Amino acid sequence: MSRPSSPAIRTLIGPGRYVQGAGALGRLGEHLRPLGSAPLVVADDVVWGFAGHEVEASLRAAGLPARREGFGGVPSAREVDRLVGVVRQAGADVLVALGGGSTIDAVKAAGFLAGTRWATVPTVASTDAPTSALAVIYTDAGEFEEYRFFPRNPDLVLVDTQLIVSAPAHFLAAGVGDALATWLEARATVASGSATMAGGLPTQAAAALARLSWDVLWDNALPALDAVRDHLVTPAVEKVVEANTLLSGVGFESGGLAAAHAVHNGLTAVPQTHGLAHGQKVNIGSITQLVLEGAPTSEIRDFVEFTTRVGLPTTLTEVGLRPSDTEELARVAAAATVPAETIHSMPFAVSAADVAAALASIEGFSRRVRAEAGLPEPVPFTGRH
Ligand SMILES: [Zn+2]
């Protein structure tokens, strides 16, 4: 589902400024001041509870008002429209998303409609939403509805790694799932010569960032997760946060999405998967894409083994489904292959039947790989974490 564009043009887009490090939140006011004089921070109560004090202090130190609006939890059209009303009433000129991917997507969409600038301050490194010029809009029930594209990326992306390591490690693991897909999808998009979410052919730069993200994660994800469980900022954590956020963010947007994210979107069509993180469902999409590609068995095995160690789902069981759920899998496959989906950026034609078969096949494959590697059996997903 790429932007309409001339397919022969290469495009790379990215955020105006990317700032990352332990304690970066203390610099928020200083980086916001060039963007506007009337910021409005959007954060849910939980996030505001642990980060609000520092945000207020930083804004005040920069001579900016510290105003905050809550977030309803789902980036739906209704929530976006509500935020637009709040922004207009408040006379805000720069919107700041403080939170996870849902808050960030809602703020980008609201900032665009309200005519303000926008900045993202992710408190978890669980998606590659913070840097991009698009938002994923869901129904109020949590089903994928549409991609919305904006004429610019966030003016500022500010990531405080001290905040990231304060969050439970499963957020970082989900971000690894989202970021690993980036290279698989970019290489497919390059191979097919398809358009990217940035509205043109992939550049070499975006493909290189996608590949770098993949390499950084294979080297650093497991030690970074160990460190985050102990709430420690280490060089491995800094590298993985940058891979999940910046490398994957620019890599997916200007490198191209393909089957993995289309399968993710398809999975949201069945209620069994609601409550799973974006990156968890994307990992099932990555394995499905590898199967569809007929990738070497050793490559699929290594990917399943590694992502199981990361703590990502590698079986249908772990996303609330079974291979025998033929009706549900058919629905997922149908949603993943609608004409507008990015699965048609694969270098070969993919039908709904192909997707359903690939999805059903990963259960047995992954269970065998896990048994051979001495990894635990999958635990069924039965609802919200
Ligand atoms: Zn994603």
UniProtKB/TrEMBL annotation:
<feature type="binding site">
    <location>
        <position position="278"/>
    </location>
    <ligand>
        <name>glycerol</name>
    </ligand>
</feature>
<dbReference type="InterPro" id="IPR018211">
    <property type="entry name" value="ADH_Fe_CS"/>
</dbReference>
<dbReference type="GO" id="GO:0008888">
    <property type="term" value="F:glycerol dehydrogenase (NAD+) activity"/>
</dbReference>
<dbReference type="InterPro" id="IPR016205">
    <property type="entry name" value="Glycerol_DH"/>
</dbReference>
<feature type="binding site">
    <location>
        <position position="134"/>
    </location>
    <ligand>
        <name>NAD(+)</name>
    </ligand>
</feature>
<feature type="binding site">
    <location>
        <position position="261"/>
    </location>
    <ligand>
        <name>glycerol</name>
    </ligand>
</feature>
<feature type="binding site">
    <location>
        <position position="44"/>
    </location>
    <ligand>
        <name>NAD(+)</name>
    </ligand>
</feature>
<dbReference type="Pfam" id="PF00465">
    <property type="entry name" value="Fe-ADH"/>
</dbReference>
<feature type="binding site">
    <location>
        <position position="178"/>
    </location>
    <ligand>
        <name>glycerol</name>
    </ligand>
</feature>
<keyword id="KW-0862">Zinc</keyword>
<dbReference type="GO" id="GO:0046872">
    <property type="term" value="F:metal ion binding"/>
</dbReference>
<feature type="domain" description="Alcohol dehydrogenase iron-type/glycerol dehydrogenase GldA">
    <location>
        <begin position="15"/>
        <end position="161"/>
    </location>
</feature>
<feature type="binding site">
    <location>
        <begin position="123"/>
        <end position="126"/>
    </location>
    <ligand>
        <name>NAD(+)</name>
    </ligand>
</feature>
<feature type="binding site">
    <location>
        <begin position="101"/>
        <end position="105"/>
    </location>
    <ligand>
        <name>NAD(+)</name>
    </ligand>
</feature>
<keyword id="KW-0560">Oxidoreductase</keyword>
<protein>
    <recommendedName>
        <fullName>Glycerol dehydrogenase</fullName>
        <ecNumber>1.1.1.6</ecNumber>
    </recommendedName>
</protein>
<feature type="binding site">
    <location>
        <position position="132"/>
    </location>
    <ligand>
        <name>NAD(+)</name>
    </ligand>
</feature>
<feature type="binding site">
    <location>
        <position position="138"/>
    </location>
    <ligand>
        <name>NAD(+)</name>
    </ligand>
</feature>
<comment type="similarity">
    <text>Belongs to the iron-containing alcohol dehydrogenase family.</text>
</comment>
<comment type="pathway">
    <text>Polyol metabolism; glycerol fermentation; glycerone phosphate from glycerol (oxidative route): step 1/2.</text>
</comment>
<keyword id="KW-0520">NAD</keyword>
<keyword id="KW-0479">Metal-binding</keyword>
<dbReference type="InterPro" id="IPR001670">
    <property type="entry name" value="ADH_Fe/GldA"/>
</dbReference>
<feature type="binding site">
    <location>
        <position position="128"/>
    </location>
    <ligand>
        <name>glycerol</name>
    </ligand>
</feature>
